[in-house]
Amino acid sequence: MTFYSDNTAPATPEVMAALNAANAGFAAPYGDDTATHGLNAAFSRLFETDVAVFPVPLGTAANGLLLSCLTRPWGVILANGAAHVLEDESTAPELFTDGARLVGLPGDRAKLDAATLRQRLVDWPWDFIHTAKPQALALTQSTEQGTVYTPDEVAALCDAAKAHGLKTMMDGARFANAVAHLGCAPADVTWRAGIDAMVFGVTKNGGMAAEAAVLFDRSLAEEFALRQKRAGQLISKMRYLSVQIAASIADDMWLKRAAHANAMATRLAAGLQAVPSVKLCHQPQANAVFVRMAPALADALSAAGWGFNPWRSLGQDSYRLVTAWNTPAETVDGFLAAVREQAAA
Ligand SMILES: Cc1ncc(COP(=O)(O)O)c(C=O)c1O
Ligand SMILES: C[C@@H](O)[C@H](N)C(=O)O
Questions:
Q1: Residues of the chain with CATH 3.40.640.10
Q2: What is the mean pLDDT of the chain?
Q3: What pLDDT is attached to residue 1?
Q4: What pLDDT, in 10s, does the model give residues 257-276?
Q5: Average pLDDT over residues 272-295
Q6: Which of 125, 162, 258, 261 could pair with 176 as two cysteines, CB 3.0-4.6 Å apart?
Q7: Of 271, 273, 282, nearest to 314 (Cα)?
Q8: Residue nearest to atom 4 of ligand 1 (CA)
Q9: pLDDT confidence tier of residue 38, bands split at 50, 70 and 90
Q10: Residue 234: is its pLDDT beyond 90?
Q11: Which ligand gives the minimal distance to the CA of 140?
């Protein structure tokens, strides 16, 4: 599974220790436990503003629940054409929003472009009753192609969206990798830039199964809670999600874990770039590397036991390699040696 996805990585020692420590005695269910009650304060400190936090087991559910609070069933959600909510969540967003439509916009390296968004919204037939109207913008940070939005880029997108009354949501399944790359305050690339709500991803960064839906617009909290229950996403033993989330953000472990994953992706990309027959699609900014190579070379590496993902949206000869919090440098170097050997064969 090596570089198949950070979804294949184990939970971190700190998450496992937190789960073991929580696994004693009785605790109030459905979010009334101590760990869950502590999340609002912990994330309010992390984001330097008062927030409401809801633990959710899966990223797809967290995305769908947030979108359902930001969009009415007759609305449109704008996203980049390569967005996970468009490409990799079946019709979950449509299910959670009771039928809202997702519309993909062009943008290189899975990034939305503010000028493109602005023009699309200006051109939208707002007075034409027959056309569904945009109500939300969804952006992924870091993106599905391992790129990262700067705070200014997020602000420009949110300004364009809000000029037409859209709410803004961030799919932060790999938010940690973005902030580790940017080195900025989490607030600067979220609510200060205009984001109304986000998924703060934990699972890909060493959680077992836990995401934190974070509402910067706390007026949405009651609706989110009601929708979470209606969607069958209100886990009874919530403590087991909340302790994972709390352990991930304690002592900035989320950033340390993500920084390692990013560093391994940078190491991997540098090594691959030195192989003449392998072409880097773009420099990684987070923990995903995208390359083009001959399918025969990819097949030989797979046959040798190396795991990675064909990424057809970038072309038939394109592949995604993802590093994780626990990817050893030795594994990266071993893969690079295998690539050099197979490429020379
Ligand atoms: C960018 C992004 N968002 C959301 C998700 C959804 O997470 P899950 O598969 O836990 O539903 C994923 C999954 O890896 C993802 O890559
Ligand atoms: C579905 C697949 O794309 C998953 N989200 C991953 O990143 O590995």
A1: 12-252
A2: 97
A3: 76
A4: 999 999 999 999 999 999 99
A5: 97
A6: 258
A7: 282
A8: 59
A9: very high
A10: yes
A11: 1
Residue 93 parent element (H or E):
helix 92-96
Nearest CA to ligand 1 atom 5: 59
Check residue 288 and give its pLDDT: 98
CA–centroid distance for 97 within its chain: 19
84 lines ligand 1 (CB under 6 A): yes
Which atom, in ligand 1's list, is nearest to the CA of 61?
11
Ligand 1 pocket, residue 198 CB under 6 Å: no
Q: For residue 142, give the ligand nearest its CA.
A: 1
The listed CATH number (3.90.1150.10, 3.40.720.10, 3.30.450.40, 2.102.10.10) that belongs to domain 254-344: 3.90.1150.10
* Atom 6 in ligand 2: residue holding the nearest Cα: 5
Locate the ligand 1 atom nearest the alpha carbon of residue 143 and give its number: 1
Distance of CA 187 to the CA centre of its chain: 16
Of the pLDDT bands very low, low, confident and very high (cuts 50, 70, 90), residue 345 is confident
Q: Is the CB of 209 under 6 A from ligand 1?
A: no
Ligand 2 midpoint to CA 314 (Å): 15
Q: Name the pTM for this structure.
A: 0.97
Assembly ipTM: 0.98
Q: How far apart are CA 82 and CA 12, in angstroms?
A: 29
Q: List, in sequence order, every beta strand (DSSP E) within the chain.
A: 52-56, 75-80, 101-105, 133-140, 167-172, 197-201, 211-215, 279-280, 288-292, 309-310, 318-322
Residues of CATH 3.90.1150.10 domain(s) within the chain? 254-344
- Is the shortest distance between the CB of 187 and ligand 1 below 6 Å? no
Cα–Cα distances in angstroms (integers) from residue 212 to residues 52, 89, 90, 196, 200, in the given order:
10, 18, 21, 14, 5
Q: What pLDDT shows up at residue 31?
A: 98
pLDDT value, residue 48? 98
CATH among 3.90.320.10, 3.10.290.10, 3.40.190.10, 3.40.640.10 for 12-252 = 3.40.640.10
